Each structure stands twice: as C-alpha cells, then as structure tokens.
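Example record for the data management plan.
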Amino acid sequence: MSRILDSLSLTGFIKLIPYLRPYRIGMAASVACGTLHHLLAIAGSALGAYLVGLAAAGGRAEEIWRWLPVLAVLVTLRVIMYFSDMWVAHNVAFQILKDFRAKLYRAVEKVTPAYLLNMRSGELAAALMADTELLEWFFAHTAGTFLVAVLASMVTLLMLGYIHWLLPLVVIPWIFLLFSVPLWLRRRADLQGMESRARLVEMNSDTVDGVQGLREIIAYNFEDGFLRRLKLLSEALDRSLLIYGKRLGLEGAFLNIFSSAAMIAVLGAAAYLIVDGQMAFYWLPVAVIMAANIFAPVLEIAAMGRNFGLIAAAASRVFAVLDAKGTVSDGGDADLPEGNATDIQFCRVSFGYGQDLPYVLSNVTFSVSAGESVALVGQSGVGKTTCLNLLQRFWDVEKGQITIGGVDLRDMPLDELRNLITIVPQDVYLFNTSILENIKLGKPEASREEVEAAARAANIHEFIVGLPEGYETNAGERGLKMSGGQKQRIAVARALLKNAPILIMDEALSSLDTENERLLQESIRKLRRGRTTVIVAHRLSTFREADKLVVLHKGKIVQTGPHDVLIKDEGYYRDFILPQVSAG
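Corresponding structural encoding:
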C-alpha cells in the first residue's frame, strides 16, 4: 500500500511540472526576486546585527552612522523584491490554473456523458474547481519556493563561512534535518490527504444534491432527514481534518525543535570561537542573525511540505479526469455529406453500456431519408434514447455502423458531425443568464434580429417581450423561472437559430398541458420543415405525423411503417398504442 501511495503522489507532482515550462521565464523571475528578497533580508539583518555588535564593542558613532543609509536601501529593496516575488509568482500560478482549467474542461467534454455514469456531478465539480484551486499551492508556493530556499541557503552559507569556516559546518546538518521532516510522515500525509479530500468531495456532492433536489426535500418533508445526513458527513470530514491537523502539529513541533536546536548549536560554536580568540565579539550577533535567516526559507519549504498530502490527493483526482480515456476518438477526416445528402442509416447496430452488461440494441437496422421524419416508438428502456446517443456519438457502436450521407460517423470530425445536428431535448437546460444568451447557444454570433425571428417562429417571442426586461431577463438557475412549455419553446428557438439539417426530438412534448402542446406543435412543424428528423416519443400526438415509425421492443426492431398502416396490422405496435387511442 505504501509503495502505491509513493507512486501516486510522486507521479502527481511529476505530471504537474510540464505545466510550468511555458512560463519558465516568469518562474525564473519569481525565483530571482524571491532569492534576492531573502538575501536582502539576511544582509539587512546581518548589517543591523553587525552595527549592534560594533556599538557593544565600543565602535565610534561616525563608523555606525555611515552604514545607516545602506541599511535603509537594503530594507527598501527587500520590500520591492518581496512585492515582485509575490506578484510574479501568483500571476504565473493563476495563468497556469487558467490553462489547467481549460484543459480539464476539454477533458471532461471528451469523457462525458459516459464518465458521469460512475461519478457524481458534485465529485466532478470538485475536481474542476476545489482540487484545481488547491494546486495553486504547488504552482505559487512550492516549485519556485524550493529553488529559492536552495539558492538563498547556499549563498548564506558562503556568507556565514566568511565569518568563520566552522559555522557553515555546524548549520548544514540541521538544514538537511529540517528538509527531511515532511518526508518522515509523507506516507501518512498522503493517506490523510486522500481521506480528507474524499470526505470533502462527498460532503460537497451531497450539498449539491440537496440544492438541486430542494423542492423534493421540502415536498416530502425530508428536511430533518437530509440535515442529519449532512451532519454525519460533516462529522466525518471534521474527524479526517482533525487527524490531518494533528500530524501538521507534530511536524510543526519537530521543525521548531530542530530549528531551535540549530540556533543553540550556532550560538555555542560562535561563543567557543570568541572565547578561543578565533572570532571577534562583534561577529556574534551577525552569526546568530544569519543562522536564523538561513533557516527561514528552509522552514518555509518545510511548512509547504506539510500540505503535500492534500496537494498530492488533489493532483491525483485532477489527473484521473485528465488521463481518462475519451469515450469516442476524434480522428476522423472524411469529407462531409454534400448538399442535401443527410440521409441516416443504422446498419446492424449493436450496443451495450458496459462489457459485462447486456446489449441495449441488438442488430438494429433502419434508415431515415433526407427530409424524412422517423419516430422511434416503444416502451421505456428499449433503446430509443440510446439510438440518439449513438447518432450524436456520445458513444460508438460496438457492432455495425451508422452513416450520414453514406459517411461513417466514426470517420467524421466530431465538431463537424455535431454541426449537422440540432436537438430539442426532454429536459431543457437553461443557463443562469439572459434569455437572449440562452437562445444564442444555437448560434453565438447571431444578431438580435435573428434571435427574435427564431423566437417568433418558436411561438415564444410574445412571452419574452412581456417580461419586465424582455430578452435580457435572467432565465434563472436551470430555467426554474419558466414553465416546461416555455423552456421547450426556447429550445426550439435555439434549434431554429442553429439551422442544422438534422433534427433530433427527444420526448419534446412530454408532460405539457394542452395549450403549451398546441403552441409547441406549431413551432415544431416549422422546425421540421425540410429537415431530416428523428423523433423519440411515447405520446401518439407526437409521432403520428411522422413519415415512418420504427417500433422497438427489447432492443430489437419489431415493426416499421407509417402509423396508419401499423395500427391496422395485428402486431406489437397495435397492442402498444391501442390504450392511447382508446383514451384519446
């Protein structure tokens, strides 16, 4: 177990180093400023101590006063170097984090939605935000700080050796001892860091669940039960952080003991040299001050090392996402279908959501001609939505192939494939921004006139202009300020604005009242006009106007044909649809 932990933590830090390379000039500037800051601090303190010693030894006032301007310059330069070091180091760190977040989000795009089958959204959000933010410690306070500690310590040792060669020899063993303290408990730190981050992620994930499911929690009067669960998770997090804090305290105690012992050793050596006549008395405060300052950068990096457990755990979680294998490859370079060649072919397609799980689709073959509308019909769980997922290449088929205009989807660039398709989903996601920006998701560069034209065609324009701020009205988190029908019509406006040749409708009319369904049906008729359309629906009113129905049962096609023909045949479709016909 310890070997695995060593490998994981070391690998995480090694993988972080390449992110520093594009910013090596900035990092070098930060290291230079940090080194100069520490050396100026040591020089200023040493000069001050020298003047005190000189005064104690009976030095003349003129000899002391002439050094005061130099001392003032050293203090001023030290302040400037400290500011420069902090500014440059954090500027570089935040630039790296900006690139890091962008790369991480691109990695998420490649692995979702498959990745979320085994990971909670709150856990993924923690990797995207909290864990990435924690890596700022490494980029701003660890990589450069380590080099500063080494350089500053080496120069200070040379300065200390100028006073007497014995003093650096006394100091060096204590430097190595201080550097080693975080390594003694590193395995324990890695374990505790992983445990603390895991408890924090679990707490965050449940909190996100509680916010997203707040209506259900209130409706079922489950507030107390949910709070009890959060309290248990909070207690578990507190326990893990307390254990982590105890180890931090133990490391801090060792660091203080060793640094104090080092100072006593230097003081003892200096006193011996003075008594033996090998060193003048006025060098005593200088030696003590320089020894104290030589440990400052060493203690700083050792203190950073105490948090390596958390940083290693965060790096491990972030790279688990970055290194995750993409659900589909994006290496296609085939020419796209030309003109109106947007016919869709499913040819002997079989697919399952895991190697150990049964096929959801088995030997499915059907076609959608260019400009034709085809509805996938059947009970829940028979593979209708899976067909849509495969058509958008969220997953790849395991057997068979899917083509558009005769071109295999796997041979098309993903961006180009998805430019061919627009979707009106069952659960419309509206971002917490203006209605205008939500509609422009279909075409970000669209003008205001284009957006309003799409909204009119979707029968949502009158509703929008009736709002206090019109198109600038905030849609609210997940569109909670709007009804289901209004959100669906905004989705139709998005699709109209995108103007893609292939349309996917996934239960777009489910759970709507009569008036909203009528308005949405009107807008969908406009949307379907001239487009190759694939519809998934349970309601007869949604798919009866389709040119062709593909009836699925247990992952296989059992019937195909128009509604008017299939309803007259003695078959599965008739049995499936008769209850709706009777109710209607």
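Summary line stored alongside the record: Residues 24-322 form a domain with the ABC transporter transmembrane region fold fold (CATH 1.20.1560.10).
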